[in-house]
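Appendix C: a fully annotated inverse folding record. The material below is reproduced so that readers can follow the format used throughout the book. The structure is listed first as tokens, followed by the designed sequence.
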């Protein structure tokens, strides 16, 4: 098994810069927002196979008590998670609100937690807060690992071309350790994507560069290309995939429709009483859903939703101009009594105060 312990410089970033691509600063963060054009990258995502350098948070847990510890502090049943398999679970606070949704990858002597962007430091501190007598050590892993997302209708066939039949035979919760030429990496299905083929690939930075080069040199007839954050955001919203904008301490797993990642039989975990009570007494007030905008919104990225009597009933947490629908669409949360397809509602920009009408839309948008 590849060792996940020796930090390296950001070889992937340096490699992309050598090709003429440069991260762009927006809102205090630097990302590769586009490599060509948003339209071309969107077409690759929806018709070919796109490769995204994911800004996911990564945390390693070392120590013999790591799996049992995670089982006791997060929502899902992890105690019997086999080696070389993964599961999803949710970190919740004492109020049952979401801190992060993570993939837990069991590599035997260590676990890797793959979470949403921007949660790494917060989650590391949260985990350390609850380690008392447990044999658990926490390490942030973003400096020496790179995560790619391989997305699109050609994704599985493309990986099979690169790696052979091992990728074609990949099971739903299985992690495969693959070696090609003189580099290796891990592959597993991204089960957040329900409407198309999507995989995570994790590698050392130096191995990640070799993987990128190998994919470029051996893409054959496949419509393969790099995808930046702008095109991915459109794809994400169209497919109803929540990010850190929707999965945070403003919301709980009931509201986010993530109950398949919550065990109601395993016993206590942080926030368990609140989450169980919401289910028992039918106290969930709002749910994750989609919205279709009736016009062009301002530069606001968040809108508050009101009913006819001007009562606040929800929020739009993400929005974009949909290339496939030719309209502005959004994701967010709405009180359950108002979640009716095509229900007309008023939204007000959080900062601009612009008023605009929106309608409720089922997810994903391309159904």
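Designed amino acids, in order:
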């Amino acid at each position: 098994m590849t060792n996940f312990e020796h930090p390296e410089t950001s070889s992937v970033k340096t490699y992309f810069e050598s090709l003429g691509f440069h991260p762009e600063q927006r809102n205090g963060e630097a990302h590769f927002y586009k490599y060509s054009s948003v339209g071309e990258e969107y077409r690759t995502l929806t018709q070919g196979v796109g490769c995204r350098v994911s800004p996911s948070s990564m945390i390693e847990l070392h120590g013999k008590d790591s799996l049992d510890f995670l089982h006791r502090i997060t929502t899902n049943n992890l105690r019997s998670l086999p080696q070389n398999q993964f599961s999803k679970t949710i970190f919740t606070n004492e109020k049952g609100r979401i801190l992060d949704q993570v993939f837990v990858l069991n590599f035997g002597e260590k676990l890797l937690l793959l979470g949403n962007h921007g949660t790494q430091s917060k989650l590391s501190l949260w985990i350390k807060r609850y380690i008392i007598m447990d044999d658990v050590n926490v390490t942030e892993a973003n400096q020496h690992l790179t995560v790619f997302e391989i997305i699109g209708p050609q994704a599985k066939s493309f990986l099979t071309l690169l790696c052979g039949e091992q990728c074609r035979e990949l099971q739903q919760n299985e992690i495969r350790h693959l070696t090609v030429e003189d580099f290796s990496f891990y592959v597993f299905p991204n089960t957040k994507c329900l409407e198309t083929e999507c995989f995570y690939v994790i590698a050392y930075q130096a191995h990640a560069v070799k993987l990128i080069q190998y994919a470029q040199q051996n893409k054959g007839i496949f419509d393969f290309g790099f995808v930046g954050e702008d095109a991915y955001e459109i794809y994400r919203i169209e497919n109803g995939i929540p990010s850190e904008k929707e999965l945070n301490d403003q919301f709980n797993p009931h509201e986010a429709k993530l109950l398949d990642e919550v065990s109601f039989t395993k016993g206590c975990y942080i926030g368990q009483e609140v989450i169980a009570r919401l289910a028992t007494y039918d106290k969930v007030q709002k749910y994750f859903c989609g919205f279709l905008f009736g016009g062009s919104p301002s530069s606001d990225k968040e809108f508050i939703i009101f009913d006819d009597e001007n009562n606040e009933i929800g929020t739009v947490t993400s929005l974009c101009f949909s290339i496939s629908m030719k309209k502005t669409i959004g994701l967010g949360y709405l009180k359950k009594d108002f979640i009716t397809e095509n229900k007309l509602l008023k939204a007000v920009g959080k900062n601009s105060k612009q008023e605009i009408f929106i309608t409720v839309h089922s997810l994903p948008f391309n159904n």
